[in-house]
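ok, trying the design again with the full structure, not the truncated one.
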């Protein structure tokens, strides 16, 4: 049997104001190959951008993979590894019977995860971790692009 395809993914989100203009950034690494992704929205939240980074990373992969996804967002890591199952059982309501925030993105992330075997790894943000810093720079660039006159290029 061939060895499994292992992809390291580094994600980050950024927002100017919360809500405000935001961006997401992704660094994908497969062996010696790297790919950078970024995007943004004119009016969003930091949590939405953190989720979008993970979603876009997983949706970009063209075939099922073993993914080591590195995020500095406890919200994303804890949400996908624990909270989502409970929210689904509760009809996408929190323990306080309130609608889950960002349920549209949580559903999309859960769907994207199904194609892969994902290990969710937390890294401390803004601590000098080179790949996390690159993902952060991409997220900030995505944010800048949506705030340029005339929108994104």
């Amino acid at each position: 049997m061939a060895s499994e395809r292992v992809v390291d993914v580094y994600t980050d989100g950024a927002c100017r104001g919360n809500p405000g203009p935001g961006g997401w950034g992704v660094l994908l690494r497969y062996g010696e190959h790297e790919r950078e992704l970024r995007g943004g929205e004119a009016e969003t939240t930091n949590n939405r951008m953190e989720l979008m980074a993970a979603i876009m990373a997983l949706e970009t992969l063209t075939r099922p993979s073993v993914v080591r996804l590195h995020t500095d967002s406890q919200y994303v890591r804890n949400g996908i590894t624990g909270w989502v199952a409970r929210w689904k059982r509760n009809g996408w309501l929190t323990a306080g019977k309130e609608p889950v925030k960002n349920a549209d993105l949580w559903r999309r992330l859960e769907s994207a995860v199904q194609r892969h075997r994902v290990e969710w790894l937390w890294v401390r943000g803004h601590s000098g971790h080179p790949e996390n810093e690159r993902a952060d720079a991409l997220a900030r660039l995505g944010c800048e692009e949506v705030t340029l006159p005339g929108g994104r290029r």
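Keeping the full-length input from now on. Strands lie at 6-15, 20-30, 33-44, 66-71, 117-122.
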